[in-house]
Amino acid sequence: MHNNLTTAWKSSLMSEGDAVRGLSANPTPGNLDQVQSMGVLEASFHLSIYGAVIILTLLGNILVLFTIYRRNSLHNMSMFLVASLSVSDLMVGIFVMPLKVVFQIIGQNHMPYLVCLMWLFFDIFFCTASIMTLCMIGMDRYWIMRGKVSYIYHSNQQKVFYMIAPVYVSSLLIALPSVVFTLLENDFEQTESCQISQNLVFTLYSTIGAFYLPFIILVIIYVKIYRYARVRWSRQRRQNNQSQLQHRSAGNSNSSAVIERSRAQPSHVHHPTAVAKSSHETVELDPKRYNRKNRVNSQYLNAGLQAQICLQVELRKRQKLHRREIRAITTVFVILSTFVLCWFPFFVLALVVPFCGPQCEPNLYVRLAIDWLGYLNSALNPFIYAVFNLDFRKELKLTLGIQN
Asked: pLDDT tens digits, residue range 251-270?
């Protein structure tokens, strides 16, 4: 059985048209040597890694969707976009990753060609939808930071549709031509590989639309968010300094007024009803007049205290807004960094190999790592929001029954 598994693994990797999503299917002589040296333990190690990525993708995205569905406080535009991202990533974990593993075990030559075409379509469609949704989430963060009140508080079904529909339409416009070009270039009955079209025009069209254009959009969004935040932070610092000076001067004037009134009162007054006029007589003081003076002094003191309280409340509000903006910048930065780290190697290779030829192909292990690094993005996305989105993290803890 071990020998059969190893033989199947080797033959599948040698024939693997991991030209899927644009790479060449023909292994180089160096790759053949590496395949022949791969044993059962190494094949099992690969399978365990792939299985872990699939399980993380399924569990993480199901948990995100379940949390958003159960918690009404998460029914807003931002969370609907996150739900759309989870749907795309979940479909990658259901329809794309398992078939990828099957192809690597038994070989693509043993799979019906129709299954290969369906896999190519699902692979390109759902991976592109995931990438496009990341762009929409970046735009969502930018609009919220800019204070688009109508966008934030009026997220009806129509607006949700207008935000999500372009994601899947653009993904379809990239995935469908891939199947059409592949059918035109291969004989449906006789072809033995599940290799995507290597047409140079299609390669440019698909890689630019699926990665390079969304990448440029995300970079522009992040730069805009960062620049806008810097302007707001500098403006807030000036406002905070002015507010502190105003409240401090107001408090000082009130304190001075109280001190002057205290000095104007007789220093020998100790009781509201009687004071000693001399060693032999006393005079009665008017209690109402004494209490009225105390009330005036208290009003001045209270005015200064209220000014300090208002200043502290205002500063807390600005600090809270500042922290929210920092979280928004951090979230977009983490999304952008993860997206680039996971997909950039693959799409560089997908663009270079068709133009350069087999001599530019990396070795077998690098190629497998690059493929699954792109899939790993679908497993990491749920954890990004579980960590950096405080509202979602709070509701996730409630869903899981975790006490703060």
From this structure: 555 555 545 555 555 544 44
Q: What are the percentages of helix, strand and coil residues in the chain, rounded to 5?
A: 80, 0, 15
Compute CA distances 230 → 223, 225, 381, whole Å: 11, 9, 27
Q: Say which residue, 193 or 178, is predicted with more confidence.
A: 178
Which stretch of DSSP H or E encloses residue 325? helix 287-356
Place of tokens 């080797």: 10
Over residues 114-171, the pLDDT tens digits come to: 888 899 999 999 999 999 999 988 888 888 777 654 555 555 677 788 889 999 999 9
Joined tokens for residue 282: 């006393």
Coil, helix or strand at residue 99 = helix
331-363 pLDDT, tens per residue? 778 888 999 999 999 999 988 888 887 788 888
Concatenating the DSSP letter of every residue in 250-306 gives HHHHHHHHHHHHHHHS-TT---SSEEESSSS-EEE--HHHHHHHHHHHHHHHHHHHH
CA 306/CA 310 separation, integer angstroms: 6
